[in-house]
Amino acid sequence: MEVLKTKTLKTIRLSISFVLLLVCLFGKQAIAHSFPDSKAEIFVQQKCLLAQFKTPVEMLNLAAKMQVTELSKSTRDSIIAYFSKHIFAYDNLKSNWAISFDKIFIQKTDYLSYGKYDELVVEIYLTPSKQQSLKSFYFNCDAIVHQVVNQSTFIFIKQDLNNGIDGHNAREVGIIRVDYKTNKILPVKIELGNGSWFKGFKSMVALGMQHIKEGTDHLLFLIVLLLPAMLLTDGNKWGKFGGVKYSIVKLLKIVTAFTLGHSATLLISALGWLQLPSQPIEVLIAISILVSAVHAVKPIFPNKEIYIAAGFGLVHGLAFASVLSNLKLDIGSLVLSILGFNIGIEMMQLAIIACVIPILILLSKTNKYQWFRIVFALLSAIAAIAWIVERVSGKSNLITHFIERIMG
């Protein structure tokens, strides 16, 4: 019994000693484990890669022995010097690629299990001597993990249009971390394959269709604007049905005006010629629904719906362009992406309108259409007001969630 007790005490002492040794050796690394891991998001371009490296600022301070609080010129130079030693790509011929740095900034990030923290973002261009090397290459980035051994860097292909990756369907391709068997940090081999411009074009068409499918406010604006389009005006109120030919012509003019409006600003904004903050644009979209709802109840711009559709279409186009704002493309690929995205928008929009127009024409021939029009317009006005309040205050509300569930 005494022997067993002695062995137990020795085991406990050894365990405590081992834990103390770990704390001494890896104390800082153990503390660092609570931080999110780093990420390297790769954007494949025609002649190079853009690697967007993201890591908590405290991880950089720990690994690079820095004290980054703000990005002064000397701090940026130190960050560039650090990453120049710890990130690289090479092909099967083992030739290192040229490296250059673009944007370096700090952003606030919210991580589910950690909360809000400062995240450093470094944009790095890696250019091979041969464009063919972009199809198959090795990528390594031992920044942070070379010092903080319990951290990892997750590698994602964020954009590769020729293979259908458009920024909204990123693909994880590997993890860079310490290999405990060899005690080395091994590179990740990335095989992109050939791909084609047509595959990328189809991906952007699908993205445009998906955006309209989920764009409750865009669809609601157009549908509400179409509500009274089949009717004639009777003084300061809506009158009777104007006939099938009258209705179809007017409906098509409104849809075409909206299309031309949003296509123009989508192109201008996506090319970077016009950049506006997203919040006022989203508020204006909600206002466009409210204005259309009022018009559906009582004509405030009779026979001028085409101009309203074109005008508010300009606003909606700016919102469409925000979907493309995260793409890192050269001018040729960007124009092709804009074209595919816009075609996708129009395909889904026309499919929905083709379903709605016959219903509106049939209903407008009946006496009950007046009540349907007014009730639908009032509900749309409530939705618009809820969106305006939400988008001005920045806080979501129950009405918005309910509307989006119904429309979705």
Feature tags:
alpha+beta, 408 residues, 2 domains, single chain
Architecture overview:
By secondary structure, the protein is of the alpha+beta class. The chain folds into 2 domains: 25-195, no CATH class; 199-407. The protein has 11 helices and 13 strands. α4 (197-214) packs parallel to α9 (331-364), α7 packs antiparallel against α8 (305-322) and α7 packs antiparallel against α10 (369-393). The radius of gyration is 29 Å and the shape is elongated. It starts with a helix and ends with a helix.
Helix content: 40-55%
- The SSE order reads HEEHHEEEEEEEEEHHEEHHHHHH
Low-confidence stretches: 16-33
- Give average pLDDT, whole number: 84
Total domains, how many?
Answer: 2
Tell me about the biggest sheet?
6 strands, mixed
Strand content: 15-25%
Structural class: alpha+beta
Rounded radius of gyration (Å): 29 Å
Short description:
With 408 residues, the protein is an alpha+beta fold. It has helices at 2-32, 57-64, 73-86, 197-214, 216-226, 244-270, 278-297, 305-322, 331-364, 369-393, 398-407; strands at residues 38-44, 49-56, 87-90, 98-111, 115-127, 136-141, 153-160, 165-176, 178-179, 184-185, 188-191, 231-234, 237-241.
